[in-house]
Every structure is written in C-alpha cells, then in structure tokens.
C-alpha cells in the first residue's frame, strides 16, 4: 500500500502571528484616520418677543411668544464684564423672563462674591458679608421688586458706579433675582407645603484699570480619579488653574490626543473660563471616540489669559478593551484548534 503524506511548510508560530496581526490591523487603521473633532453646543431657550410700551414702568417690558409655560424663570446674561475708571458709571441691562405663572412677584438683591480654594466651585455668594473685592455698595436699581405675568420679560437697568477713590483691581458681585414658588397643598396630608425660594443671578466682574497684578498658572492636569487604565471611553481630564493676582483671569486652551505612533487622533478646544483672584478652579474635559486601543498621550496647552503665556502639560493613559480582546483570542483559538483537528484527521486517513 502506498503511503501519502502532506507537507504544508507552515509552522504554528506563523499561523498565530498572522492571526494576531489580522486582529490588531483594524485598530491601527482606525488610529491612522483623521482626528475626530469634539464640538461643544450651548443650548438655550430662545423665543421671539414683542416690546410693550408702558411709561409707568421703570423697566422695559416684552411679551414672549410661543410656549412659555415652563415652570421656571430665566435670568440673563450669566456674567457681565466691564472696565470702569474711578468716578465712572455705567448702566447694564439684565433680563428676567417669567415662565411660571401670572402675577408673579420678583425681588432683586445684591451680594458680593469671592473665589475659593474648593476648585469645584466657581464662586461663593457671601450673603450679608462683605467680600475682599466688594462691589455690592456700587450697584443699584430704581426699585427692588416688580411683578410679571406669564410670558413677560423685563429688562432691568442695573447701575454700576465706581467711587472716585477706588483702587485699581477687580470688584466682584452678583445681582440675584428671587421669587417664591408655592407648591400648594399636600392633598394626602391636607397640609400646606413649604414654599421654595428660587434664586438666579447675573455675575458682575468690574475691573478698575491701573497697576493691577495679573498672575496665575496651570497647577496640574490629571485623569479623573487618577485612573490610567480604561476599557473604553470617554476619557475624563481635570485641569487645575490657580489665580494668585488681583483681578480675574480667563484662561483658555486646547487638548490634543496622540496615539502610540505620535499620530493625532483627537482634539478638544477649551473655551475661556473665569478664575477669580486668590482662588483655584478646575476645568473638566471629556474626550471620546470609538474603537480605542493602546497607549495615548494627552497634551494640554493652557493660555494663562494674560501676556500670551502658555502652560503645557502631558498625561498618558491606556485603553484595553479586554472583553473584545479575550473574545477574539477565544475565537482564534477555536479556529486553530478545529483547523489542527481537521488537518490531523485528514493526514491520518491519507496514511491509512
């Protein structure tokens, strides 16, 4: 009987190497693609309005159109930045839109604000206390209360007057708008619920020009919870900035992500954020894309907000989708096992 033997000339090591290369190829192809930009969208409730002429009012009145019954009220803008010289005054309008109910009474108040060592808090309202950069005595309005019907928007004139002897530097406060929202009667217990006092405001950042100290720096760039290994995105970063000067600063910058081959695979633009004097503030950044695998480096460039000084920091992290990797290796192992089983069975039959 003639014996036939097949010779393939392919080692098991070659098969495993080829299978592993086929598994990793899609990841490397994805990394070589163009960076996926991250865009930020600011959402705001907008509505057209009609001006109401009423000479008896001390504020401008507008009527909102469309759906206005939202159960809340809106104050804008969120922040106003002005530069005023000693002895100078300015009038700035804030808007208050009533989307709660008819005959709603609102009240205006002024408080100083300050920074804090708690990096998670942008500002602290000081209530009756006087802040280190007090502004509350320099802000006024014709009256402290007003009433709006549902769908009304008032444009409130706020006057800021800087005294003649004001020193150069920053002055910080906020105009707070409050209203009482009564939850009504608790039908189950038959008792009245406690009213909720809602407060929304506009921050005022006033700078008096002169010899001011602008000083600040990026203290650190860290991964959230100091986690360096990830199974998938998003990847969250925290940027800590310290302002050691006498005026507020508006740092801004960008984050660029590169892979193991130093190819840029991600970009995040950081819009300006404010940091009050003698305070810390953290800026959180999130980046994500599909099919992350391997070693990445985030390069963070922060412009300090003055003199075009840029701080640069880097942080490295790793992404390993172990569930996908494990599943792929199991499939490869099964394929190789079946292939080897069939090959040996075929060889045995040929020899027989």
From TrEMBL:
Alphabetical UniProt keywords: Membrane, Transmembrane, Transmembrane helix
Transmembrane residue ranges: 320-343
UniProt entry tagged with the keyword Transmembrane: yes
Protein name stated in the entry: DUF916 domain-containing protein
């Amino acid at each position: 009987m003639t014996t036939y033997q097949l010779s393939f000339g392919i080692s098991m090591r070659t098969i495993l190497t080829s299978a592993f290369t086929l598994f990793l190829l899609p990841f490397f192809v994805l990394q070589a693609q163009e960076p996926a930009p991250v865009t930020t969208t600011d959402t705001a409730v907008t509505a057209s309005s009609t001006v109401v002429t009423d000479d008896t009012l001390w504020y401008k009145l507008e009527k909102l159109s469309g759906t206005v019954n939202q159960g809340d009220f809106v104050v804008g803008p969120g922040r106003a930045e002005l530069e005023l010289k000693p002895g100078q005054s300015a009038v700035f309008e804030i808007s208050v839109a009533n989307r709660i109910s008819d005959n709603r009474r609102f009240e205006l108040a002024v408080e100083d604000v300050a920074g804090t060592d708690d990096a998670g808090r942008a500002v602290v309202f000081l209530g009756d206390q006087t802040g280190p950069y007090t502004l509350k005595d320099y802000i006024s309005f014709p009256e402290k209360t007003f009433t709006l019907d549902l769908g009304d928007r008032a444009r409130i004139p706020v006057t800021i007057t800087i005294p003649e002897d004001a020193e150069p530097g920053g002055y910080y406060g906020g105009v707070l708008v409050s209203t009482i929202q009564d939850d009504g009667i608790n039908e189950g217990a038959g008792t009245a619920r406690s009213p909720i006092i809602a407060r929304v405001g506009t921050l005022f950042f006033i700078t008096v020009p002169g010899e001011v100290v602008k000083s600040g720096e990026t203290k650190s760039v860290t991964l959230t919870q100091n986690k360096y290994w990830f199974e998938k995105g998003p990847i969250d970063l925290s940027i800590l900035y310290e302002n050691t000067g006498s005026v507020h600063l508006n740092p801004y910058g960008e984050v660029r992500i590169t892979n193991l081959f130093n190819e840029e695979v991600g970009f995040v633009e950081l819009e300006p954020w404010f940091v009050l004097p003698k305070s810390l503030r953290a800026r959180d950044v999130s980046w994500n894309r599909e099919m992350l695998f391997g070693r990445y480096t985030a390069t963070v460039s922060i412009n300090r907000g003055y003199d075009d000084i840029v701080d640069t920091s880097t942080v490295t992290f790793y992404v390993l989708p172990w569930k996908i990797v494990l599943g792929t290796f199991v499939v490869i192992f099964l394929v190789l096992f079946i292939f080897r089983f069939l090959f040996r069975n075929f060889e045995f039959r040929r020899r027989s």
